[in-house]
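We now fix the convention by which a protein and its fold are recorded. The integers have meaning only within a learned vocabulary of local backbone shapes. The record below shows the convention in full.
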Amino acid sequence: MAREFDMDRRAYLKTVGVAGATTALAGCSGGEDTQVIVPGTSAGFPPFEFTEDGELVGFDITLAEEVVTRAGYELGEWSDISFESLIPSLLDGDIDLVAAGMTINESRQESIDFSDPYWESNQSVLVQEDSDFQPGSVDDLGDARVGAQAGTTGEGEAETLVADGTIAGDALRRYDNYTLAVQDLENGNVDAVIIDQPVATTFSSDRAVAVAFIIETGEEFGMGVRPDDDRLGDLNGALAEVKDDGTYDDLVTEWFE
């Protein structure tokens, strides 16, 4: 995965973020005069968001920065918190935008609004690369210990397996982030991890884990905002522009190829 950056641009955005922090309260208010958007994410989900050399990087990070600035707003300081805390923090006004590989679904749409979709994904089942346990479908999970990140659609898939009796309730292990889940998989503390497909591919290229099979879910990722935020139209317009002028394809190449 390419990890090269336009340092002049990133330095500029960082400077803007520091300046924007002085007006962060205004940015969180969602008022008509607001010019600062404070973004939030949850690192540990490469290549969408993760930390490298102490810096928050990833596809979601660069895409959100591009969309926010093109929409005519200043970028506040990134807030890196647990995935489960993102929607509550958004609704409380601590952040203005969620950019965290978040799937658009009916449950989340009851409390927040989403941008137009920017990514399609399914779920993958990761196992140890050299393990004797190599399931070909969910029916093969049986007595397996299955891990997932709390609050994600991967956890939802695992909970469905518990509900239909495919795996036992005490076999489901929840984690604060997928980096911890995959570490436990490598260490043999779980037998499988259910995780979004592109993230599973990244882990399998860097660690001793492999994708056993795919669960077709047809998910779409979107950026989340509060329902009362009238800046969503500007953000969607900027997202469309990023896709139309080739910038989006450049980011895909940078982070996924």
Q: What stands out?
A: The first strand starts at residue 36 and ends at 37. The domain at 7-118+222-256 is CATH 3.40.190.10 (D-Maltodextrin-Binding Protein; domain 2).
